[in-house]
Amino acid sequence: MSANSLPEAAAVWHSLEVDKALDLLDSNADRGLTTEEIQLRLQKYGPNELVESGGRSAWEILLDQFTNIMLLMLIGVALISGGIDLWTWQQGQLKPGEVPFKDTIAILSIVILNGILGYVQESRAEKALAALKKLSSSLVRVLRDGKLLEVAAKEIVPGDVMLLEAGVQIAADGRLIEQSNLQIRESALTGEAVAANKQAKLTLPEETDLGDRLNLVFQGTEVVQGRAKVLVTNTGMQTELGKIAAMLQAVDSEPTPLQQRMTQLGNVLVTGSLILVAIVVGGGLLYSFSQGKGFSNFRELVEVSLSMAVAVVPEGLPAVITVTLALGTQRMVRQHALIRKLPAVETLGSVNTICSDKTGTLTQNKMVVQSLYTNNSAFRVTGEGYAPTGDFQLDGTKIPVDEYPEISALLVACAVCNDSVLQQDKGDWVILGDPTEGALVTLAGKAGIEKDQWNSKLPRVGEFPFSSERKRMSVICQVEEVATGEASVTSVDPAIAGFLQSENYLMFTKGSPELTLARCTQIHLGTLAAPVSDEQRQQILAENDRMASKGLRVLGFAYKPLPENPPEGSDETTEQNLVWLGLVGMLDAPRPEVRAAVQECREAGIRTVMITGDHQLTARAIATDLGIAQEGDRVLTGQELQRMSDEELEQNVDLVSIYARVAPEHKLRIVQALQRRGRFVAMTGDGVNDAPALKQADIGIAMGITGTDVSKEASDMVLLDDNFATIVAATKEGRVVYTNIRRFIKYILGSNIGEILTIAAAPIMGLGGVPLTPLQILWMNLVTDGLPALALAVEPPEPDVMKRPPFSPRESIFARGLGSYMVRIGIIFAIISIILMKVAYDYYPGTWKTMVFTTLCLAQMGHAIAIRSNNQLIIEMNPLSNLFVLGSVVVTTILQLMLVYVPPLQNFFGTQKLSLSELGICIGFSSLMLVWIEMEKLFFRFMGKRTV
Ligand code: ATP
């Protein structure tokens, strides 16, 4: 065999019997591979990873950077400016010391730099997103050395025995060893949307098509239902998906709404500036002609236009936005919220309704059984955590369980109708699998009923798996061995003896008590089954309500003797005429931090809605405890919801804060109804059938720990700790990001407007000459605006960020006064610099341009400091709370002074040395900007208006 090839039969796994396939791969269905063998195979076959392809190539990303209309305009400006310089040079009209093509080179450098910066950032963003996606991919369950383990997908090797369950995205190709009700959606591979029924027992002709290989499973496809044990046959690039690597979806790097709006803004700015240029040039020429001077001022007008065109482009903005979003994602991940789709960063802040699952998100998902109810008696169970130690009590007194056969019978059902594994890990008892089921194994263990032991006494031969729709599960066990086996002399056998009757099989069912009881016709009393009376039903349901209203999660148990193993898919008919065993109530304590988070949401204008598969009373008890349900709030059950039309649901949706006993498809209707009411909805989900609701929600949130791969794939964000409080923290970050983005947009664009007006004013005022060269404008836009803008991006949250309602996600970025602020400040900016320009031109004709340049730059320093808060005055803010702003202002001011005072820089940037008094005048004028903004804040405060 060559380094990474498989046996000859590799291509025809579907035509082999299971045993043959196991032989070929030298594996064992019950024990899997050994640790040493896995190491060898990892070396031989390499990690189970796909070499990603698809997506944009590096060249495409680079070229995309230059399709931006603003950059194209800059290139145009560079070329025209180069043409003028060439002409001047040829005419011998260059001034002494003047460097030709300076502006052209500078502009082109900026264009290229911008392109490279954009390229680096985009490719890093793509890589970062890809890495994040990997982080959110879940573990694979395998059998190794006879033990059940969870390992990373990339560590899977051919020969591994992999266990699949609903919601799993399959990590490698494999041959089914056994399966139960297995349905797999293979659309990722075959495009076929309907899930395929897979069967381990089949052997198929070699020429069978990929889509018809019903005894194989393929990497990247999804388990919709059921469970299976699979022998891994191919990994990494050898899998079917690996072979069609091009089919791999490109990493999601769609532009965020903000980035899209910025592109639109670019178009508006470019068009606007071209119109302005036309007016200035046209008007200037008309004026010149009317004075009989013809084209004498044409060159000056062209230079003015070029400067204006450069001034209009906020060159620093795209980089600042990208950096801000990237920093936002990083801050969120530190808080355990992993962003999968970039737009979520900026839209999270707009969420006004959070629909959250109960179990695990609002609660701890650490279940401890506290009560039992069987044969008309309620028992208390003591003990904490998953340790199988504790007492059973009746009326406060400890009881010997073996004297209560009905309890033993119930506990056998708990142990057998169960897929979880209780293990000891470094002294702690831990659960592999569903905590609800874990609590039941622990419970049985407290009475000495060991799951493993009972699994061998009552081997499982079939099952009807759990789903959130069915809200129940059943297992079918073979009983002959117990009946005939000599080892069946345990203390609980009398309990079992009652079940056996004369049948060969026994089905145990557990699930939602109402639904399970509805399927029962008999009740188990002591060791016998008797018809269940209406009164008994009432009693059981009343006890169920009593347990539920204490916040317990209650499960009902039943059994049914069967003459034969029922066929797959016959659940509806088989799960009838059951014998009722009893109720088990378990506590799942609320997460302690959630109460404060719900309160924070309320203050922030965000409504929390609980959506749960659990009983309405359990849901209400927990929701009340957490402050989610308030007086007047309604509880709606899945059944009631089912009966409602979409319109009715829409009318009620604002009043309901708890949805109980819902199925995943109801979630979709709830989101849609909320959205029709104009709500911006974040929705959590974990199951495979939650995916449509997660996609529909404005922010779909998957659970990092308990979530299925399918739900993660459909989500915008993954909660690494499954915790509701994390959603709230991420929402807060979203608000901070959005506020900061608005802040630096105001800051940057206000300055651009000021620059353009100042430049346009010069020829109109007949000053002769352009106050700012393109090079100086680039300097301002990139350095003196860019650095403080970056610092503003990390501005800490304002204290009231979660004390105000969210803003509409559909609002324009210029809404709530941002547009008018920009224009107003731009005009003030221009007025200050135009007055200064006039004064300087009249009194300091040698340095007037440098004075304008310096004043514009310094004015922005004051602006940066003042704009940190919309409402607080500078003196009210802690200057040290954002040291970056302070630092960037100091650095930028020093750089600006260097441009004015260091001779080589003077030459290059075309500045003149300013005298102390000239510099003082510049500082005086520029500080007017700061004074103005502070006066505005006072004015708005006085008028009682808040600006945000
Ligand atoms: P949430 O949506 O808040 O996470 P949930 O976890 O209670 O709610 P499901 O897991 O869909 O929702 O469970 C719905 C109901 O199904 C439960 O109330 C319980 O009655 C029943 N149930 C839950 N887990 C099992 C299980 N492993 N076996 C049988 N029935 C179960």
From TrEMBL:
Ranges for the Cation-transporting P-type ATPase N-terminal domain?
12-86
Residues that span the membrane, as ranges = 66-84, 104-120, 268-289, 309-328, 744-765, 777-794, 821-841, 847-867, 879-902, 914-933
Q: Which CDD domains match?
A: P-type_ATPase_Ca_prok
Which keywords appear in this protein's UniProt record, sorted alphabetically?
Answer: ATP-binding, Magnesium, Membrane, Metal-binding, Nucleotide-binding, Translocase, Transmembrane, Transmembrane helix
| SMART domains, per the entry | Cation_ATPase_N
Q: Name one GO cellular component term.
A: plasma membrane
One annotated GO molecular function is: metal ion binding
Protein's UniProt keywords contain Glycoprotein: no
Chief location bin? membrane
Q: Which InterPro entries match?
A: ATPase_P-typ_cation-transptr_C (IPR006068), ATPase_P-typ_cation-transptr_N (IPR004014), ATPase_P-typ_cyto_dom_N (IPR023299), ATPase_P-typ_P_site (IPR018303), ATPase_P-typ_TM_dom_sf (IPR023298), ATPase_P-typ_transduc_dom_A_sf (IPR008250), ATPase_P-type_domA (IPR059000), HAD-like_sf (IPR036412)
Q: Which Gene3D superfamilies match?
A: Calcium-transporting ATPase, cytoplasmic domain N (3.40.1110.10), Calcium-transporting ATPase, cytoplasmic transduction domain A (2.70.150.10), Calcium-transporting ATPase, transmembrane domain (1.20.1110.10), HAD superfamily/HAD-like (3.40.50.1000)
- Membrane topology term: Multi-pass membrane protein
Localization annotation: Membrane
Q: Which PROSITE patterns match?
A: ATPASE_E1_E2 (PS00154)
* NCBIfam families per UniProt: ATPase_P-type
Name the family.
Belongs to the cation transport ATPase (P-type) (TC 3.A.3) family. Type IIA subfamily.
Q: Please identify the protein, giving its name as recorded.
A: P-type ATPase, translocating
Provide the species name.
Cylindrospermum stagnale PCC 7417
Q: What is the lineage of its organism?
A: Bacteria, Bacillati, Cyanobacteriota, Cyanophyceae, Nostocales
